[in-house]
Amino acid sequence: MTAERYKPRVPDLMEAIFDICYLTFDLVAGILFFAFSKGNVLFVLYGILTLTLCAGDAFHLVPRVIRAIKGSNDKIKKQLGVGLQISSVTMTVFYIILLYIWKYTFPEMDAPIILEILIWVSAIIRIVICFLPQNNWCSDAGNLKLSVIRNAIFAVTGIGIIILYVVSGNEYGYHMTRMAAAVIISFGCYLPVTLLSKKMPKIGMLMIPKTCAYIWIIVMGLQLLFNA
Questions:
Q1: How far apart are CA 134 and CA 128, in angstroms?
Q2: pLDDT digits (tens, 9 = 90+) for 61-99
Q3: Angle 117-54-169 from CA coordinates, rounded to 5°
Q4: What is the DSSP letter of 203?
Q5: Which positions ≥6 away from 136 have C-beta within 8 Å?
Q6: Are 55 and 94 in contact (CB under 8 A)?
Q7: What are phi and psi of 2, to 5 degrees?
Q8: Which of 32, 181, 197, 171 lies closest to 105 in space, CA to CA?
Q9: Cα separation of 197 and 141, whole Å?
Q10: How far apart are CA 40 and CA 139, in angstroms?
């Protein structure tokens, strides 16, 4: 189908609007964290976390918005593939930053050294795998074997972060068990999409609650910022 004949579908346009709102929210939230941090390292980290998420996702979501409005072509497919690779890396960095947010949120608590090493090592291995050309990011077929491997390793990173926020619980009245819940939701929605979406395209709808889980994480940071 050529771009001239393409007519945007309502579901695609709704997704495009959602993606634009999400990226705009991330950008505004990131600016707020830096503007009101007053040098507090915790909120500077939240700002870095938010803008890392925004920048990484933009590489993948902006081409999706263009595709929804103008239709697909080889250039868009390549941009989507490269964007997916970049967002996979930045998403991993996101969880490393979340580790340090935990450390600065609960300075009197020490993360078990084994758990911290597990988070770091699994994150580094995933990033290295993401750079392997065998991933075939720009191919429709991709590489299912590497996808399973890199996301299984990513799940280890996520489990480590979940454990930290469960252990800290309601310390200081922050209710950071909600952070663990948000991470569980994000992984619960993300993993099926990465593994099954090529065979079952409709499962891609799970990316909406996954994105909402990330918004929730940022909102928790904003609540801390303005209640500090």
A1: 12
A2: 999 999 989 888 889 999 999 999 999 999 999 999 999
A3: 45
A4: G
A5: 142, 143
A6: no
A7: -80, 160
A8: 171
A9: 11
A10: 44
The per-residue pLDDT for range 120-165, each reduced to its tens digit, is 999 999 999 999 999 999 887 788 899 999 999 999 999 999 999 9
**Contact, 192 vs 185, CB < 8 A?**
no
DSSP string, 125-177: HHHHHHT-GGG-TTSSS--HHHHHHHHHHHHHHHHHHHHHHHHHTTGGG--TH
R_g (Cα) of the chain, nearest Å:
18
Nearest Cα neighbor of 158 from 85, 222, 94, 89 is 94
H helices of the chain, in order, are: 10-36, 41-70, 74-105, 113-130, 144-168, 177-196, 207-227
Give the number of residues written for the chain. Answer: 228
- Which pTM value belongs to this model? 0.91
Residues 6 or more apart in contact with residue 22 via CB below 8 angstroms: 57, 61, 211, 215
Q: How many CA atoms lie less than 13 Å away from 17 in the CB half-sphere?
A: 7
- Owner of token pair 């450390």: 103
Chain-wide mean pLDDT for the chain? 91
Q: Assess whether pLDDT exceeds 60 at residue 3.
A: no
- Give yes or no for a contact between 156 and 114, defined as CB atoms under 8 angstroms apart: no
Distances in Å between the Cα of 171 and the Cα atoms of 75, 168, 198, 214 are 49, 6, 42, 22
